[in-house]
């Protein structure tokens, strides 16, 4: 077959799998799309046929409407063209998957976005040995080492209890992060109603329908100010400092993101309480995962490509940067 992985071709808008005549996470409408998860920098509408987990297809249905769905459950293998395709958990958000491609004795794993630490809203990452491991590098610098999630939530709840006249306003991405923040608070004993921005209602409802119990949620819009004192309100990051948030009772602004490790980013967002919480792997998770997967080659799709490529080379692992476009969520 010649060069390892010669049947996989990266383009700026996605990864083309030639013997399947299909694309992984294409940014433009294609005849066949294999989709790792529901975030908009990986899942787009307009494809003629979409292979993804049932949960990802449900998320895409909420966002893009009906499509030609080809559901693939975790661990199931389907044939697309001449390639055996299976989906295994990525631990990123509900329904997220690594796409495993087997062709003529070679195995390529396209991991999409992933993390290794526990997340009560989705299945944990499954290590899958392969010849080529295609990895993200969103936090691919040694400075990015995310703290314990439970400890971050404890800090937030302690602050809420210390200032009961205020509300805590948490900026969290609408898919995955918002639901994870809510669920982590529930697991740490916060049983009071949690208020949400209207833009997060559909996906929170979908998570509940798919079996993720988020407890009692209420819409924050139109609620009397006094009712929100001592309460948690979750909103999209873009609503933290807009007109909508000004109606809240002296909100303590927090933002749940791995980028909150960088103080300047917190200041730029006028974030009073940085909540360091990411749905992406940090530096240690990235390097540990590569060691455990033990690939012959690592292909790096986005983020801090140079540092991770250098780490691979110093560990005698062949690596290349793919330079895909539109693959970094600034609000993670």
Automatic annotation (TrEMBL):
EC number: 3.1.-.-
GO molecular function: exonuclease activity; ligase activity
Superkingdom to which the source organism belongs: Bacteria
InterPro entries: MBL (IPR050698), Metallo-B-lactamas (IPR001279), RMMBL (IPR011108), Xnuc_lig_assoc (IPR026360)
Pfam families for the chain: RMMBL
Keywords on record: Exonuclease, Hydrolase, Ligase, Nuclease
EC class: hydrolase
Residue span(s) of domain Metallo-beta-lactamase: 2-173
Record-linked NCBIfam families: Xnuc_lig_assoc
Protein name per its UniProtKB record: Ligase-associated DNA damage response exonuclease
UniProt organism field: Sphingomicrobium clamense
């Amino acid at each position: 077959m010649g060069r390892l992985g010669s049947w996989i071709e990266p383009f700026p808008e996605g990864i083309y799998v030639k013997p399947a005549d299909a694309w992984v996470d294409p940014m433009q409408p294609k005849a066949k799309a294999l989709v790792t998860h529901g975030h908009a920098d990986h899942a787009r509408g307009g494809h003629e046929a979409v292979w993804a987990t049932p949960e990802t297809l449900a998320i895409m249905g909420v966002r893009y409407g009906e499509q030609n769905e080809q559901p693939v459950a975790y661990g199931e293998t389907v044939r697309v063209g001449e390639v055996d395709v299976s989906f295994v958990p990525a631990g990123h958000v509900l329904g997220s998957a690594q796409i495993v491609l087997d062709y003529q004795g070679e195995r390529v794993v396209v991991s999409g976005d992933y993390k290794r630490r526990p997340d009560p809203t989705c299945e944990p990452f499954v290590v899958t040995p392969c010849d080529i491991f295609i990895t993200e590098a969103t936090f691919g610098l040694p400075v990015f080492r995310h703290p314990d999630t439970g400890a971050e939530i404890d800090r937030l709840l302690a602050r809420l209890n210390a200032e009961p006249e205020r509300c805590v306003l948490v900026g969290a991405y609408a898919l995955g992060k918002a639901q994870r923040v809510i669920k982590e608070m529930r697991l740490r004993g916060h049983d009071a109603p949690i208020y949400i921005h209207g833009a997060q209602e559909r996906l929170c409802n979908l998570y509940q329908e798919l079996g993720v119990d988020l407890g009692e949620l209420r819409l924050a819009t139109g609620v009397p100010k006094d009712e929100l004192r001592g309460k948690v309100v979750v909103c999209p990051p873009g609503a933290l400092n807009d007109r909508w948030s000004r109606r809240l009772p002296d909100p303590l602004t927090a933002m749940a993101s791995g980028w909150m490790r960088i103080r300047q980013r917190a200041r730029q967002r006028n974030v009073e309480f940085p909540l360091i919480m990411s749905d992406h792997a940090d530096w240690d998770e990235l390097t540990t995962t590569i060691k455990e997967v033990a690939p012959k080659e690592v292909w790096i799709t986005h983020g801090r490509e140079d540092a991770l490529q250098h780490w691979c080379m110093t560990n005698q692992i062949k690596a290349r940067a793919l330079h895909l476009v539109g693959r970094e969520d600034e609000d993670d």
